[in-house]
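Attaching the record inline, Q. Sequence:
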Amino acid sequence: MATDIVYCARHPKVETGLLCGRCETPICPKCAVFTDVGARCPDCAPRRKMPQLELGFTWMVRAAGAAAVVGIATGALWGLALPNTAGFLTLAIGGGIGYCVGESVSVATNRKIGTSLQIIAALGAVLAYVAHNVVAGYPIVPMDDLWGGLAVLVAIFVGAGRLRL
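Structure, as predicted:
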């Protein structure tokens, strides 16, 4: 009983028994795209992005609005409650602000993720620092505020990390 040996259409030296579910082209596990309806060749596989990565103008506006509102609110609260903080407490405050900004962007965009949302969250964290300085009566960007600068970096890291791919 002889069986025909089938080779992958993209990798001619690789034997396979797998066929595309749509066009029946021989495919190996390396080039197969596994979909909810079976294995497909790269030509027949859907080319859509994952839904959580699809960002339109409306989603971006919602993200920017959430980052701005939460950034200003948390920064103002920080400036009113603890205007002269220093040390590790400032870093903890930065982490809290970053989490709040990142979570607000995530909720406003229905849990979408992506680099553009990370940038928006980072800008929201910077806006929180500016709001803190304005409320506390400092210059907008003081040159001698090491702990505040570190707090902003922590806030950016935490907020952007909340929206990481």
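Residues 51-161 form one domain. Residues 86 and 146 are 9 Å apart (CA to CA).

More tomorrow.
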